[in-house]
């Protein structure tokens, strides 16, 4: 560790079971390395750089994940259908497709889509839900709870899906390519918006030609 890093570590004080604490936001850490990595959030330092496109990252791991965009590497695969993925989280989410109806309670939840049954209700506003998870997720609007936190910048979210979308800001992943112009987008919603614009433009051009 450099002399500069040692001086930086010495600026943090011990706290309980976690030895190091950030003197800016008081977040505690058990290891020096985690502390220094966290400090980059405040300083804006991004010491890891992609040698292909020059994009910089706070974490070395994020840089390696990003580089798979250039290399096409997909080290994670589904052992049921063989589909491959650049990130482990994407593979885990995909595998739920194969197990969705393997248990009776999953089928019961699915049937509520057709019956309209909503047995779970929010005790704060009375809104009803078909699934307990949906109700618990909704209640975070009232409580302000944000249990899903980005380990790169610390921003927190009420839903894991929003965290997944946010992480792409750091990794540079753009998994939704437009089949018209080839531009890759980070969110499916942005892709749909792009396709809608092309459809409007195509309709207008057809109208003028007539």
Description:
By secondary structure, the protein is α+β, with helices and mostly antiparallel strands. Among the domains are: 17-43; 146-200, Double Stranded RNA Binding Domain (2-Layer Sandwich). It is 49% helix and 14% strand. It contains 8 helices and 13 strands. The chain has helices at residues 3-10, 32-43, 60-71, 88-99, 104-115, 132-143, 160-171, 188-209; strands at residues 13-15, 18-21, 28-29, 48-49, 56-57, 76-77, 84-85, 120-121, 128-129, 148-149, 156-157, 176-177, 184-185. A 3-stranded antiparallel β-sheet has the order 1-2-3. A hairpin with a 6-residue loop joins strand 4 (48-49) and strand 5 (56-57). It is globular. The model is unreliable at 7-16 (pLDDT under 50). One of its GO terms (cellular component) is nucleus. It is found in: Nucleus. This is Zinc finger protein 3-like. One of its GO terms (molecular function) is zinc ion binding. Pfam families: zf-C2H2.
């Amino acid at each position: 560790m450099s002399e500069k890093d040692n001086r930086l570590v010495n600026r943090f004080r011990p706290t309980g079971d976690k030895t190091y604490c950030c003197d800016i936001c008081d977040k505690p850490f058990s290891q020096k390395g985690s502390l220094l990595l966290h400090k980059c959030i405040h300083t804006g330092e991004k010491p890891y750089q992609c040698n292909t496109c020059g994009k910089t990252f706070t974490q070395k791991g994020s840089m390696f994940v990003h580089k798979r965009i250039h290399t096409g590497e997909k080290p994670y695969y589904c052992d049921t259908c063989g589909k491959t993925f650049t990130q482990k989280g994407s593979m885990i989410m995909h595998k739920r497709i194969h197990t969705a109806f393997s248990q009776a309670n999953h089928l019961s939840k699915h049937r509520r889509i057709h019956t309209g049954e909503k047995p779970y209700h929010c005790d704060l506003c009375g809104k009803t839900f078909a699934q307990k998870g949906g109700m618990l997720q909704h209640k975070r609007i009232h409580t302000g709870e944000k249990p899903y936190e980005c380990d790169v910048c610390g921003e927190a979210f009420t839903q894991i899906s929003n965290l997944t979308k946010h992480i792409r800001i750091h990794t540079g992943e753009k998994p939704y390519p437009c089949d018209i112009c080839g531009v890759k987008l980070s969110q499916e919603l942005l892709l749909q918006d792009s396709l809608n614009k092309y459809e409007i433009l195509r309709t207008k051009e057809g109208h003028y030609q007539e």
